[in-house]
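To fix ideas at the outset, we first show an illustrative case, written as a sequence plus integers encoding its fold:
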Amino acid sequence: MNDGTSSRAPAAIREARVDDLPALQQIEVEAGRAFADIGMDSVASDDAFPLDVLLAYQASGHAWVAVDDRDAPVGYLIVDLVDGNAHVEQVSVRPSFGRRGIGRTLIDAVVQWARERGLAAVTLTTFRDVAWNGPYYARCGFRTLGPDEVTPGLAAIRRHERDLGLDEWPRVCMRREVEPHASPGN
């Protein structure tokens, strides 16, 4: 019997609402705990985005949630614009909803959002060797950028990440091209 709890996949992806924001913080903390299992304790204990930061993403239309059948957030994604591309700042899924394609569905929603705005790509920075980071994003259609492909905005993000101590583990910049809409008659 399915009672509508964590065994259900999300019903939809929608834009985040203000009342969702505390749940996004909780999701980020829950998802981050997995890093402790692989010896990345400082990442696991990192604070969630403050509410005012999440509110800015929400107010600008740059925050999406995956929701269960009760419209409760089970995952979220926030995006910036960096060097003319959509840049995934954070994507997190509640661990009890993991391995159901929710992260990929959120990413695909942002790719569609970028396509509708005529953006060329979606970018992100991530841990190269963490299974649910670099290898996962490669399966989602992202490729690792070479040093000569890193744009000025991505380089600034990487400098900030280094300042935060994230380079204790290898990190990379990744990019997924956004295919333009097909023209009618093609």
Helices lie at 21-32, 41-44, 51-59, 102-116, 134-139, 152-163. The two ends are 47 Å apart (CA to CA). The CA atoms of residues 121 and 177 lie 4 Å apart.
